Structure formats: C-alpha cells, structure tokens
C-alpha cells in the first residue's frame, strides 16, 4: 500500500512536470492501462484525472478508458468509476473457453467474463472493447469461431484480437519446449485471422487496424492516435511519449521512478527521430490501418523516400497485396496477412 501511495503521488507530480510537453494540444483521450490499473480505487483514479484536467485542455467529447480484467469489476466500483469520469472500458477477456483461460493463467472464468460485460452495460457504459487471443496452443478453428460467436452475442462495439505471442521463460514456453503442448501452426493462425475478418465485416464491423474491429463511430480514439502518429504523453514507470520529433520512455523500476520524480526529475531516455525513422514509422503504422499511407505525406518527408516508395510499391499492387485509392495506398485483404513483411520491404 505504501508503494502504491508513493507511486500515485509521483504520477501526480509527473503530470505537473510534463505540463508543457504537448504544447497546448487539446486532449482527445486518456488511457489508464499497463499492469493492472483497475487495482486503483475510483477515488485514486479521480485524483489522477483531475490533475490531468488541471494542466491539459480536454476535448468536450474526451474518451477516458480504463483497462480492466473481468474479475475486477462490480456494480459499486463501476458506478464510482463513472462518477470519476471513466467512459470507456478495455476488458482483458482473452477467451470465453475455460481451458484456454487456465492455459493463459487467467484468474477469471468464462462465466465471469460474460457477467462483467453485462455489468458494464447495465452501468451505462456503451463504449467498451474486449481483447481476445487466437492461436492458443491446442485450440482449433472451431474453438475460435465459438469465441467470436459469443463476442457477437455480447453486443460489444469493439474487438481487439491478437495472435498469441509465446514469451520466453514462461510456463507456457516451457510446456511447448518440453513437448507437453503443441503450438498452433501459421496456416491455422492465418485461417483464424481470415475468418475473423470475414465474419466481423459481414456483421458491420470496420476492420480499421490489423488487430482491431469496431462498429462505425466506436473506433478507439487513443489507439488511433498512435497509428496516425499524433503526439501523446505517457505517465508512470515504463510509460512512452511521442511529440512528432522524438520518443521518450520512463525507467521501468518503480522505486527509482518515485525517487527521481520526488527530486523533480523525470527518469526518461530520449530518442531523437531522424527523417528515416519518421518515414519508416509512418510506413509501419499507416500500413496497419484502413487509411493506409498517403503519397503526398511521403513526399513531404523527403524526395529520397518518395522515390524509394514509388520504386517498390508497384510489385505489391501487381500481386494484389496493396490497393491504390487516389493518393492512398492500403493493404488488401490478402495483404493483411503479410503486413509486417510488406512494411519491412518498403522501409528505407
């Protein structure tokens, strides 16, 4: 508890120290995530949001998201969070199958996952995202189809779905290494990805970023700003920030972070972006979205990048990987499966 109190006080102080970072930019979104932010009380969240509002200008329709797990929410907490200003949730459901949740070491079960989404809707929250993971060892295409069927029945307007990444030095990695679990092969993962695209677009979801689907008007403003390379400010240990010309990230260690902030110094590392960095990042993020990349913006980044892009893009158009819409170049449904490779080949 002492560490938690110290961390909150340090974040409040960092808000003040960073008050000029965004240069009077109107704030469209606040995202409270990383770790388990729903362990914060509504009163603690209220303190943080009030401090942000003191030093930054809020858009009147600001999106304020809390990342939470299904077993963190109850009626009382939800109403308190609503009063504090939270108007959007991102729920770490991961799966609606109990065997998969056990494998992922999640503390909730499928019943609690569905129940939490019902409670959120009953509390009046209309803008919610859930995370689902495909490619879980031992899972089949039918298992994934059932996950998506349950998602559609919840009537939640936003889905983030990710292919499972096996982190080294985890129990899951050990079980795969020792032959106790089989990984899902790339072909099956591709089938899961393609099925998701077809099913959700058929049900009026926009596939607006490779891993994200939303009903029109329910795109996540916060994440969209990342992909469109809008400036943002991160607060707390490990937090990343971007202002268009540089990136910076705070130290991960909680104790060192608190000590430094208490001495009026933000413990950050800064990376100044070169023109090449800016071009490559624009390609990487833009090609992930339904908006793609704009040739005029590429030309503005430099003639060398403009020539490089124009030299390499025709092959992907010929192969049906990329579609040109006037000045925009976007991935086709086929190209979505090879997004990382296409981007890397367009890098300068």
Quick synopsis:
It contains 15 helices and 13 strands.
**What is the CATH domain class of the largest domain?**
Alpha Beta
Second rung of CATH, namely the architecture of the largest domain: Alpha-Beta Barrel
Could you tell me the CATH topology label of the largest domain.
TIM Barrel
Number of strands: 13
Morphology call: globular
Task: Give an overview in words.
- This protein is of the alpha/beta class and 348 residues long.
- The protein contains 15 helices and 13 strands.
- The chain has a seven-stranded mixed beta sheet with strand order 1-2-3-4-5-7-6, sandwiched between helices.
- Helix 1 (2-17) crosses helix 10, helix 2 packs parallel to helix 3 and helix 12 runs antiparallel to helix 13 (303-318).
- The model has no long low-confidence stretch (mean pLDDT 94).
Characteristic key phrases:
348 residues; alpha/beta; TIM Barrel; seven-stranded mixed β-sheet; three-stranded antiparallel β-sheet; 15 helices; 13 strands; globular
């Amino acid at each position: 508890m002492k560490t938690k109190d110290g961390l909150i006080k340090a974040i409040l102080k960092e808000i003040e120290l960073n008050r000029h970072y965004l240069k009077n930019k109107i704030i469209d979104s606040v995202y409270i995530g990383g770790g388990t932010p729903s362990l914060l009380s509504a009163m603690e969240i209220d303190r943080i949001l009030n401090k942000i509002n003191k030093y930054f200008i809020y858009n009147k329709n600001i999106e304020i998201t809390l990342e939470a797990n299904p077993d963190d929410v109850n009626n009382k907490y939800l109403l308190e969070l609503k009063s504090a200003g939270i108007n959007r949730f991102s729920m770490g459901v991961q799966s609606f199958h109990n065997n998969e949740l056990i494998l992922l070491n999640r503390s909730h079960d499928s019943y609690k996952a569905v129940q939490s989404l019902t409670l959120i809707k009953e509390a009046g929250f209309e803008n919610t995202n859930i995370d689902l993971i495909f490619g879980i060892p031992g899972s089949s295409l039918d298992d994934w189809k059932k996950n998506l069927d349950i998602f559609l029945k919840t009537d939640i307007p936003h889905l983030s779905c990710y292919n499972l990444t096996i982190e080294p030095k985890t129990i899951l990695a050990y079980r795969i290494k020792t032959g106790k679990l089989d990984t899902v092969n790339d072909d099956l993962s591709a089938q899961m990805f393609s099925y998701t695209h077809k099913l959700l677009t058929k049900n009026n979801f926009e596939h607006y970023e490779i891993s994200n689907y939303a009903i029109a008007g329910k795109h996540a403003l916060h994440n969209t700003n990342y992909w469109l390379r809008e400036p943002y400010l991160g607060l707390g240990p490990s937090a990343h920030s971007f202002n268009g010309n540089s990136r910076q990230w705070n130290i991960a260690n909680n104790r060192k972070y608190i000590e430094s902030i208490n001495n009026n110094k933000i413990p950050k590392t800064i990376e100044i972006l070169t023109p090449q960095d800016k071009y490559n990042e624009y390609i990487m993020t833009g090609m992930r979205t339904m908006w793609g990349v704009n040739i005029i913006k590429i030309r503005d980044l430099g003639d060398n990048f403009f020539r490089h892009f124009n030299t390499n893009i025709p092959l992907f158009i010929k192969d049906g990987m990329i579609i040109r819409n006037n000045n925009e170049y976007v991935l086709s449904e086929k190209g979505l499966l090879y997004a990382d490779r296409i981007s890397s080949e367009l890098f300068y």
